[in-house]
Sequence to fold (256 residues):
Amino acid sequence: MVGHSSWHALVHVCRRWRNIVFCPSRYLELLLLCTPTTPVRESLHIWPPLPIVVDCERHSTSGWDNVVAALEQNDRVCEVTLLDLSFLTLEAVLKKMERPFPQLAYLELRAYDVTLFNPPDSFLGGSAPCLKVLKLFGIPFPALRKLLLSSPDLETLFLCVPISAYIPPYSMPICLSAVTRLEELLIEPYPPRNRLYHWASPPPLRQTRVLLPVLRRFSFIGFSGYAEDLLNWMDAPLLGRLVINLNEEPRYDISD
Fold:
């Protein structure tokens, strides 16, 4: 794959070079990189309709319109990396991502101070058929199961979620049952020092173990009880790397 911007210099050499670069674009896998400094609305029409990578590694109020403009090209966006999102910017992002993103393969969202924020069920239009990597840090996501059901090609899942949004250990394998190509799973609390969680309802009386046929790496940070219950519901015959960091503080059950 040609780098996000390394091919720009080539297409400006001459028309012949431009034709050489763009004609086999499907083989070169050209991408357009959009950042907060990219004048998206003014320049996007200059290039062919190539897949778009949206990358904002630091939260900044300036240039945020460029990120939003790139997300409006939902049928072309293939990668999204947005870090250090505030409540307002996260809200704006999710509003722009309520439509289907048919080419989206990589999604990483990192937010802070949004523990009481719940993404809408309409996130990604309820479907992400090409999604391979999903990383959520600091964002509660009650609609995770719905999203996973529409993402059969998912290979990597990182969930660093607020404790209040922890998915019960007996429900997590059910959420993962649709992603049969999942190879790497990470679950840890957010913020890292907050170690208290509970699940309000008891597990079902009857539930079969869920097969994760190609899961090879599993990392977990939290209580031993959660890890033990979670592993009891999972069957991962190819698991080769298991990393568990336990927080052995007393468990407080504040359910009714």
About this structure: Residues 250-256 have pLDDT under 50 and may be disordered.
